Amino acid sequence: MNEKQRATLDGINDRSTMTYGQALAQAKAEAYTRWFETHDMEVFIGADDRFHAGPNGAEGANGEFYSPGQWVATSEDTIKGAMGDIHKYAASIAHQEWVQDPINAKFEVLLNAYTGTNRFFASLQSQLSRKGALSEAQVAAGNNAFQRDAEQGTERAEKAKRDSGSEHVGTVGERRLFTVTVEVVLTFNSMYGYWFLNICRDADDNVIVYKGSKPFDKGSKIIMKATVKEHGEYQGTKQTIVSRPKIQEED
After folding, report:
1. Are residues 120 and 179 in the same domain?
2. pTM above 0.70?
3. Residue 8 belongs to some domain of the structure
4. Separation between Cα atoms, residue 114 and residue 107, nearest integer Å
């Protein structure tokens, strides 16, 4: 490392005042410097006769200068493999700085504990492993995603509990009144036109389903007269399928 480079490194003493980007760049610069100070550059350059060890890096046959990073990028694959230690060291330095922030440290615990299949979390795990740090934006997005995942998990658990209590209502062929809340309305298009899947639930958590040409209003409470068409089951949840609904009252 020449005097100018060392002066630049020595001039930054308080990392707490640095931005994330500056800290990461500084860590990488130190990693390259320390690696070359503790390894015999002649050993690696000797494997590639296009270069020889100069005072500040690798020099080509015509005297052109290559910084450590440039030299690694232009050397043979065998040398690039040996240089992999530099990037691992850079990641370790960057991680030491990054994890000092309590928010980052807490997020790392969550990320390391995650074993699901979410691609976003998997990409964050990969980058943290390779580079030793994540940006503030990535940490914020990750925390938000973890929160949404937890909320959705709670909702799924509550729905599963309600669904487990669903029973068949009435007898097949019977026309009767149903008092329900409309929970889901899905629209489908077929060669015969649009049709709608209306999923409702009564006061006893029984699931009532109507498939047909009439869309209900999601979230509304209705009293309808309909015919019990079928007693079915979907993903372990008992469902009462009805036909020919006629709404008597809607709230």
Report:
1. no
2. no
3. yes
4. 11
